[in-house]
Amino acid sequence: MKVSTAKWGGLQVIAMSERSSATKNTADGGYMDHDSKMSDEHRDTDDSSEKTPSRMSRSPQKSSKRPKTVPVKVTLLDGSAYETGVEKLCKGQMLLDMVCEHLNLLEKDYFGLTFSDTESQKNWLDPSKEIKKQIRVGPWHFSFAVKFYPPDPSQLIEDITR
């Protein structure tokens, strides 16, 4: 059994403990374990006295962050526009799924979304990447397009896909 004393803030703390051989004494009368962390007996456990009430409790407005939504406009194959909003950090697949659901499309593999970059170059939206990392500036405007043409369209299950 080891009895040690230490002073913190004018208070004398007496600690009684059994130590393993992997500990060593420190200059202030405490001891360190094999991971070089101060033992629990010598830590200042009354941190709440030094904290201000504002640090102890956070306002509910800051702790309940809602994901930011970005307005999106998608031009469909017939020229009509589909407008929706998606989370800022969502991936391209989520937006493609929303458009396909709006159109009642089950065979999504043949379609994709395109966008124009800053140099007016047309690009396919990568469904596995975040949208914001692909379309850096400007409004989020996309075009729904046929990405793959099957060799025999009669093998498609849905009439709407043909």
From TrEMBL:
Name the InterPro entries on file. FERM_CS (IPR019747), FERM_domain (IPR000299), FERM_N (IPR018979), Ubiquitin-like_domsf (IPR029071)
Q: Which residues form the FERM domain?
A: 70-162
Q: Where is this region: Disordered?
A: 17-71
Bias (Basic and acidic residues) occurs at 31-53
Q: Which GO terms describe its biological process?
A: actomyosin structure organization
- GO cellular component terms attached to this protein's record: cytoskeleton; plasma membrane
- The identity of this protein, by name, is Band 1
Give the source lineage, highest ranks first.
Eukaryota, Metazoa, Chordata, Craniata, Vertebrata
